[in-house]
Amino acid sequence: MQAHSVVYGEFEIVVRPERNALGAWIADVSVSRGAETIVDTRPSTVQPEWLTEEEAIRDGVEWGRRFIDREFNTHPSQSWVADRFRAERWFRDTGES
């Protein structure tokens, strides 16, 4: 099948839709940054099946974007609980020095 490529920030997501044994469409996804391949094939232990090729492509692109956001674009928590924990740790560490 034809590969579909999408650029997302500095990453490239390549989706290759294919039919499984039951005739449903699934997405084979790879993510790369420059010459470095981050994910060669989307883990397929449990993978959604789609009625159309377009749905499989959309799912592959969305999976790639979520993976990139989770692994590379995650920002530190802005919750007051996390801030309080960091402050308590800082006070404890400065008191021990």
**Mean pLDDT across all amino acids:** 84
List unreliable stretches of 5+ residues.
none
Tell me the distance between the termini.
62 Å
The number of distinct structural domains comes to: 1
- Principal-axes geometry comes out as elongated
- Give the helix level as a range of percent: 25-40%
According to DSSP, the number of beta strands is 4
* Largest sheet data: 4 strands, antiparallel
Put simply, the count of helices is 2
How do the strands of the widest beta sheet line up side by side?
1-2-3-4
Helix-strand pattern: EEEEHH
Q: What structural class do you assign from the helix and strand content?
A: alpha+beta
Radius of gyration: 20 Å
What share of residues are in beta strands?
25-35%
